[in-house]
Amino acid sequence: MAVAVPAAAVAAVHVATHEDPGVLACRRIDEFTREFVAGGRPEVSSTEARRLADQLAASGHDDLTRIGEVFQLGQQEDDPERPIDGMRGAVLLMGAEHSCRKAGVPMTRVQPPPR
Q1: Which of 21, 66, 72, 76 could form a disulfide with 58, with the two C-beta atoms 3.0–4.6 Å apart?
Q2: Does the model's pTM come out above 0.90?
Q3: Would you say 96 and 67 are in contact if contact means Cβ atoms under 8 Å apart?
């Protein structure tokens, strides 16, 4: 019985320190949106796009999982050498932004606020 208590404590610490992969992907996507809003033109390599899609699909949040699965399908159908273009990138960011917000991850606005 004495072994069960420390094992449970270790498991609780592991769960508390393990972040959902979809949440991690949301934070990375937010970095892209911040760069975009600041006037930059962030580029997402096909390797990074696949990694983000896989992280979203592995999420414990249903909305993030679904959007990740859609992005995985898009990666399979596209030329693996072609980075996400402007239109696909905007759609990816808008869909991910919505799902990330629903999962409790604050996101930067994709479009800058009106002046």
Answers
A1: 21
A2: no
A3: yes
What does the pLDDT look like over 65-109, one tens digit per residue?
998 988 887 766 555 555 555 666 666 677 888 899 999 988 876
Structural domain includes residue 11: no
Contact criterion met (CB below 8 Å) for 110 and 30: no
Place of tokens 């996507």: 29
Q: CB count, 10 Å around CB of 13? A: 10
CA–CA distance, 56 with 76 (Å, rounded to integer): 16
| 3-class state of residue 99 by DSSP | helix
Q: Share the mean pLDDT of the chain.
A: 75
Residue 45: partners with Cβ closer than 8 Å, 6 or more residues away: 83
Q: By the 8 A CB rule, do 112 and 37 touch? A: yes
The sign of the torsion formed by the CA atoms of 73, 74, 77, 78 equals negative
- C-alpha–C-alpha distance, residues 84 and 8, integer Å: 44
Parent domain of 45? 21-102
